[in-house]
Specification:
elongated, single chain, mainly alpha, 2 domains, DNA polymerase, domain 1
């Protein structure tokens, strides 16, 4: 899940983060409504035995988050949150917005298509200039 060679891996986060930190990561970046229960289950399971595989983590999450027929896998949001956290994806987005501000003409705009509401919300909150405000509006329309 980690794109860079340095820094904590998702396995490190799962093995070491507190219930509160895991819940915050999963709720904020994964938009998982059951984040606290997922975090508690992860910590409870890792005290009995290390969580060594993605399958083991998915099974833990699956016992807490129940899938509806035709819905995404119950662990999708948790894995998304861990990926976004270890790769610092919101920081990368901030750098991209700053770079766009530097190269766009004053009245220009551009669009991108985020896959998560957390990125849209973060983009809106971080908008400080006219260029990034245009980006945030464009994001919300996509």
């Amino acid at each position: 899940m980690r794109m860079a060679s340095a820094g904590a891996s998702a396995a490190d986060v799962v093995a070491q983060a507190s219930v509160q930190d895991l819940a915050s990561i999963i709720a904020t970046l994964g938009e998982e409504r059951m984040a606290r229960a997922v975090a508690r289950a992860i910590v409870r399971e890792r005290t009995q035995a290390p969580i060594r595989t993605t399958r083991a983590l998915a099974e833990i999450v699956g016992r807490v988050v129940h899938a509806r027929p035709g819905a995404i896998h119950p662990a999708t949001r948790t894995f998304q949150a861990l990926r976004m956290f270890v790769n610092e994806e919101l920081s990368e987005l901030a750098e991209a917005l700053k770079a766009a501000e530097a190269i766009l003409k004053p009245a220009a705009g551009w669009s991108r298509s985020p896959f998560t509401r957390s990125r849209i919300a973060w983009s809106r909150r971080s908008s400080t200039s006219a260029a990034s405000a245009v980006v945030a509006r464009a994001i919300s329309r996509s």
